[in-house]
Amino acid sequence: MKAKKIIPCLDVKDGKVVKGVNFDGMREMGDPVAMAEAYSEAGADELVFLDITATTEERETITELVKKVAKVVTVPFTVGGGIKSMEDIARILDAGADKVGINSAAVKNPLLIEEASKEFGSERIVAAVDAKLFPDGTWHVMTRGGMENAEMDAIWWAKELERLGAGEILLTSVDRDGVKDGYDLELTKAIVNAVNIPVTASGGCGNAEHITEVFTKTDVESALAASIFHENMFTIGEVKQLCKKRGVNVNEA
């Protein structure tokens, strides 16, 4: 069985790692370069670096910071936020990222995913899906940092992203983001069961048990977490030890 991945996420605003609740109320957590290096050394399987206000502020992802982070990590590294063109993708990959995450721009121009996967390889294109549960019982795709309803069904969109050539999906529950009461297992199951490409679960991790839960109750490949690592509640090694105890196959920390 393929080893499950533990992925710390660094949400960056104004050059600092931040964390909020439901995509709002951001608190400063530290320096992204130092934190990325520490997580890489501590046994993270991958890292995700999101410039969370690049899209809403309509500016480019902070390329110089990406270069600094890429120099200090030894694990695969995904960068997202404000990436809206082939030029943006090339710039971020050239800066040292292994993959790029694309969300709002893909909703606006789905063919960007198709063109990018052909040009750079699908394994380097991560489709980010931010989903929110609506009263009709369906999950809607949200864009612009979780603020705008794209009026699209998230399950349909995940399938479409796979068809267009995305290599993997980074799935975030807007409802659970920063709340720390566990991943949205129903949403995660629905998306994982709808596609054949790897899915990373994000949004809601409040303790190590939540990570083991999403691995044992869904077929998700990776679990993304921020608060539990940033706030020193658990180390990556401790999470991996618990995963092994629960019968989840993970790489050594």
General description of the model:
36% of the residues lie in helices and 27% in strands. With 253 residues, the chain is of the alpha/beta class. It has an 8-stranded parallel β-barrel, surrounded by 7 helices. Helix 1 (32-42) packs parallel to helix 2. The chain has a single domain (5-246), classed as TIM Barrel (Alpha-Beta Barrel), CATH 3.20.20. The chain is globular. The chain has helices spanning 32-42, 63-72, 86-94, 104-108, 111-120, 154-164, 185-194, 208-217, 227-230, 236-245, and strands at 5-13, 16-21, 24-30, 47-51, 77-80, 99-102, 125-133, 139-143, 148-153, 168-173, 199-202, 222-225.
Salient structural properties:
253 residues; alpha/beta; TIM Barrel; 10 helices; 27% strand
Short description:
The chain contains ten helices and twelve strands. It is of the alpha/beta class.
